[in-house]
Write a structure and sequence with these properties.
- The protein is of the alpha/beta class.
- It is 44% helix and 12% strand.
- The strands form two sheets. Strands 1-2-3-4-5-6-7 form a seven-stranded parallel sheet. A two-stranded antiparallel sheet has the order 8-9.
- Strand 2 (117-120), helix 6 (127-140) and strand 3 (142-146) form a beta-alpha-beta unit.
- The longest helix is centred in the first third of the chain and has 30 residues, at 55-84.
- The model has no long low-confidence stretch (mean pLDDT 87).
Amino acid sequence: MPAQPLVSATDRRDTILHSALRVFTERGYHNTSMDDVAAMASISKPVLYQFFAGKRELYLGLLNDSVDAVSLGVAQAMASKARSLGQARALKIKLDGSVRDASRLLSIREARPDVPLSVDANQGWSRVHLDTMLPVLQQVGIDMLEQPFAIGADTCLDTLDYPIPLAADESFQDVQDLPSVARRYDIVNIKLDKCGGLTRALELASSARAAGLSVMVGCMPGTSLAIAPAFLLGQLCDRIDLDGPLFLAKDRPVGAHYTDGLLLCPDAAWGSAVDNAVLP
């Protein structure tokens, strides 16, 4: 009888997981046994148990591999999107605090080595995750980290000194937040949607300047009619993040113009209810 070819442990594990996926898909978790998986993979149960201690461990292994595959796809998609934004002269990356943040950020930097990058953590990071990510942030050349911790969980910044400028978004709601924000952050993100409009935003920008903070104007997803007053505030700001209309399927007929990294908001963008109505 001819000798059977040797199978590497990696290939064997891949075969087991592929077989497990078929069985779990056809029968569901509760109706699947280790015998079923071993039969589908054409191996003995002792060999199966060399790789996975039980059905639960096998199922978790399958989930982990699936998550890794999805995560790789997300990183590639983010890099592809960054590459497609050829006119962008700066990019702000949303990261969720998972272990895959580093690979996503590195993929984006590889795709766009030519532009400044900043990161918005959206209150989703822990102190441990920030410390873990700090070398990657420095390697990639991140020029701003926005709102790493949740509101109320950022008191640790009182005694920490990070080499990357930190920006307050959710932590800066109104002027009464300035004392704590000035201790913990370098930049404030002012959004007209958040503070109540242009008049209040201008007051906050002045107060933030007086407190020694750099000022950024941001926005929520919205039409160019929401961007127009924020565009005025932008004349007083160090950073401009007014890309809300770009995420809409349809903007107003006369809207803001984004060209070569510049934002232009023509007078007609303010328009009238008749001349600038949203098309059906």
